[in-house]
Amino acid sequence: PGKKNSTRKSKLKKNIKKRSSKKTRFKFPKLWKVLVLLVAVGAATSIATWIHVDKRVQLFLTRKGIAQKSAIYTDELKVFPNPELSFEKVKNILGKRGYKSATSSVINPGEYLLGEKIIKLKTREFRTPAGTIRSAKDIAIDFEDSETHKINFTSNGESLDQFYFEPIVLSSFNSDNVRVAQYLPLSEIPRLLQAAVVVTEDQRFMQHYGIDLVGIGRAMVSNILSLSIKQGGSTITQQLAKNLFFSSKKTLTRKYFEAFAALSLEHRISKAEILERYLNEVYLGQEGSIAIHGVAEASKAFFRKEVSDLNLSQMALIAAVIKAPSYYSPRSNQSRAKERRDLVLKLMFEAGTITDKQYRKAIKTDLNVVKDSLHTKIAPHFLDALRRHINNTINMDAVRLAGGALFTSLNSEMQICASESLSAGLNTLEETYPSLKRKRNKLQAGLVAIETYSGKVRAWVGSRNFAGNQFDHVDQAKRQIGSTIKPFLYLTALDPSANPSDTATPMTVLRDEPFQLEVNGKLWQPQNYDKQPRGRVTLRYALENSLNLAAVYTANKVGFEKIAQTARNFDLSDQILAVPSLALGALDTTLLRMTTAYSGLANGGILTSPRMFISILDPQGALLNTSSIEERFVSNPAPTFVITNLMRGVVERGTGNIIRRKGFQYPVAGKTGTSNDTRDAWFLGFTPELAVGVWVGFDDNAKLGLTGSSGAAPIWADFMKCSAAYLRGLPFIPPKGVSFVKVDSSTGLRVSPNCPARGTAVSEIFVSGTEPDPLCGRLDNSEEHFQSERRSIPEAFKNDE
What pLDDT, on the 0 to 100 scale, is given for residue 697? Predict the structure, then answer.
């Protein structure tokens, strides 16, 4: 029995071994296949990722012209040789674009030479919003005569009518922040600053190939021992790849693609070029909503110095901030910033980059960082409005991922003029009228400028301070428009097609006298702003002096529905009621809509929709999207030009004369506006090229106590004076269908050799066919005949009794 049992046990063991061996032989081949498959899939994925990422890197590195970061830009800047283009303005334009003084007689792109009355420069090559390349050009700006301010543009001896500067960056796509950076070649960045960054951020920079496995391992050990993430393994090349191609969002996917991009960069460009790009690209903190990128920009922001003028302590501080710009901010966290700077100096000393003497001197040096911000955001309200405007039609994330560049319609210099004029204007008002100055709910304003023939929005300021008030007074605030309605009222009266039986002319006599109208069963008695009726006045005089009684009288004669229809045609508001108070501007709307309507007057009765962006280009310059000009006919050219001529009188002699007194001399038409109880002050005006609107008031609708003339018009004038350098100063050109006739200012009758003027002979404009009859054609100059003719003047239109 014992033998039998042992035999059974040995057989059982053999069977178990056979089964287990069968089972093992069955599992191992299957696991091996899975592992092979996983390796193959991983290799294929890696190869595909490499091809995709490397192609993107190669494309970025081989772009023609100036490499355009995927961002939101202004329009290109066109400059004209007119008297308003001063020596200082040109220097400011060059400074904002990072132009440098040439070190020899040979001027390279992006450089200039200053003479006593001449500036020589060479523009950079750049891509236009149309996708074309505008080549670099040698320019000489000759400020010949200090008295006549005559200016000449020449290029290689040939006279120029205009030339262009490149667009500037307004903002990135994936952030509300505006990015500022000045690009410097590596040779112009101090070697000690280069060493400070390398020894702090990537000590094995010269040894690795984009990914530092030793550094990653060291960081993993440190993090495991500390049970937290204290060190990162990203190399300078990986950080550059992140900054150039990816968002700052921390994900495993981004790190995966970032690694391949770093390998590609190392494969395609030298270590020196990688370091140069990194030092110009690295993020170094914020000034409000302005993102500081690059060591050159940080040098100016922190120390108001060129990077070449930094001392050792300052270089170490810039290198120190890179790790965590907010945490180590030298403005808000000085103790942490100094501690980090001292660490950088220690690392430099240990690496043999600096001597013991240099180290001891630098570590005792205070930070001495300038507290005030250098940068301000260029157009914050405009950018907010742009995103609201295009987010429903354009996938901005897709544009960013494709490396696209969006070109807005903004004129960079006009935008700066707008910001400065509005801010200075409000400060002046508060100084002149102390009751306007408040700690809370401060005096506010909005300004917008639109190119009349294209609809391009050239400047947009939504409030006096974006940080203090993000509410946009250009397109979000609806305010009562006051007398800015009057040009549309009188346009209706002057237009034979709108008012065929009783067409008015500038010499039509109106009644500016007290009267009453019944409105909803109640008597309404309008009155002039100064409560003084003028009696019998011409239509021209009534508009130039913004007389309310004459305006309501005219609207009543023409018909309130006709006035309302003209306002609808010009798209003043969504809902416009044909009520008597419409004649005095009892209508709430936005500054943007009113300025657009006035641009329709400037454009001869053609209303053009505002355009906030021009185009979107891919990295090769191909058009991904464009904004087309959208226009529609809303008014006949002849009566539109007549009302424009009358509005020129507002500026020359009437309520808008402050424009001339402030020194703006271009041909201009405009209209003041003051709402009920002086809660809103407006000035809307235009040259043939540019329509501009300004509104001033309080957000709580408190009484302002200012008129359009005293509140808004001075800001308008300052903006136009500042912007005149970027306009051609074109004249208003009469269309077909208008006539200029010499008339007697006292009678409105045509002046001729047989009928001399009893008052002053003036040249007046008429829609052709509405000119006064030549009643003085016969040789009868008796007083009786004169009085007879005077009684024949159209008084409150032909059928008035």
Answer: 97
CA dist 374 and 467 (Å) reads: 15
Predicted pLDDT at 791: 40
Residues in the chain: 801
Contact 590, 478 (CB under 8 A): yes
CA 40 to chain centre: 52
DSSP calls for 6-37? HHHHHHHHHHHHHHHHHHHHHHHHHHHHHHHH
Tokens of 476: 């979000």
- Read off the DSSP letter of residue 708: I
User: What is the model's pLDDT at position 177?
Assistant: 56
Based on the fold, state whether residues 238 and 340 are members of the same structural domain: yes
Quote the CA–CA distance of 527 and 522 in Å, as a whole number.
16
The helix-helix angle for 236-245 and 191-201 (nearest 10°) equals: 100
> At 551, which helix (H) or strand (E)?
helix 548-558
Contact 13, 21 (CB under 8 A): no
Query: Which domain does 82 fall in, by range?
Result: 71-169
> Consecutive 10-residue runs of the chain (801 residues): their mean pLDDT?
54 53 52 73 73 68 54 92 89 86 88 91 94 94 69 88 91 62 83 95 87 68 53 76 71 72 82 90 81 88 90 96 94 93 96 95 92 74 90 76 87 96 98 92 96 98 86 96 98 95 93 91 93 96 98 96 98 96 96 99 98 91 92 98 99 98 97 96 99 98 96 98 94 97 86 82 94 60 42 45 34
CA 55 to chain centre: 34
Q: Who's near 386: CB < 8 A, 6+ residues apart?
A: 72, 408, 612, 613
Same domain, 315 and 340: yes
Of 469, 440, 481, nearest in space to 712 by CA: 481
- Is residue 290 within 8 Å of residue 253, measured between CB atoms? no
pLDDT at 26: 47
Residues 221 and 303 in one domain: yes
Residue type, 6: S
Joined tokens for residue 224: 């495991």
CA–CA separation, 609 and 593 (whole Å): 9
**Boundary residue ending a domain (697, 726, 755):** 726
First-last CA distance in the chain: 146
Specify if 399 maps to a domain.
Answer: no
720 & 744 share domain:
no
Q: Would you give the distance in Å from CA 19 to the centre of its chain? A: 79
Q: Please tell me the distance from the alpha carbon of residue 617 to that of residue 127, in angstroms, as a whole number.
A: 10
Q: Which residue has the tokens 């108070």?
A: 581
pLDDT (0 to 100) of residue 783: 41
